[in-house]
């Protein structure tokens, strides 16, 4: 049975291994950064497990619509957050087609609504924008110069900043 639960520190080695398998070299983020992100916002990080195997994970944090986190940098805390920023989701190839990503996304959306946040945001990489658009996310066409610069840190990815509001 697939279980979605909050990430624990003990999950981090498996999370880093899954990240390494799912993302291209340009998107590599070191294990110590992954750990710092988890420690900064553990309440908004989830894993999907099946029979004691890590099938997927999702790192999120409260942010502001239009604020793009640069690749390979710490998450920054904001005051008056209005969205939950989905920074990193990966699903094991063993789990594709099992609804893992949808269940992780549902956990994030539920938390955002519980926190009275009005949106989910993310940077789509590795040609995933159409996947996210099928789930209600739309491209943000007007970004600040800082956000455009930060989006460019996802080099070679044709990165797009997307938002889902309710």
From the structure above, extract its key features.
166 residues, alpha+beta, Aminopeptidase, 5 helices, globular
Textual characterization of the structure:
The structure is a single chain. With 166 residues, the chain is α+β, with helices and mostly antiparallel strands. The protein has a single domain, classed as Aminopeptidase (3-Layer(aba) Sandwich). It is 30% helix and 27% strand. The protein has helices at residues 12-22, 31-40, 100-114, 129-133, 145-152; strands spanning 2-6, 45-50, 53-63, 83-91, 119-124, 138-139, 160-165. Strands 1-2-3-4-5-7-6 form a 7-stranded mixed β-sheet. The longest helix is centred in the middle third of the chain and has 15 residues, at 100-114.
How are the SSEs placed, and which strands pair?
Elements (H helix, E strand, L loop, with lengths): L1 E5 L5 H11 L8 H10 L4 E6 L2 E11 L19 E9 L8 H15 L4 E6 L4 H5 L4 E2 L5 H8 L7 E6 L1
Parallel strand pairs: 4-5
Antiparallel strand pairs: 1-2, 2-3, 3-4, 5-7, 6-7
Distance linking N and C termini: 31 Å
Q: State the CATH architecture.
A: 3-Layer(aba) Sandwich
At the fold tier of CATH, the topology name is Aminopeptidase
Average pLDDT value?
A: 94
What shape does the CA trace take? globular
Q: What oligomeric assembly is this protein in? A: single chain
| Cα Rg | 15 Å
**The CATH top-level class label:** Alpha Beta
Helix-strand category: alpha+beta
CATH superfamily: Gcn5-related N-acetyltransferase (GNAT)
What is the number of beta strands? Answer: 7
Largest sheet: 7 strands, mixed
**H/E element order:** EHHEEEHEHEHE
How many domains? The number is: 1
Helical coverage, percent range:
25-40%
Give the strand order, joined by hyphens, for the main sheet: 1-2-3-4-5-7-6
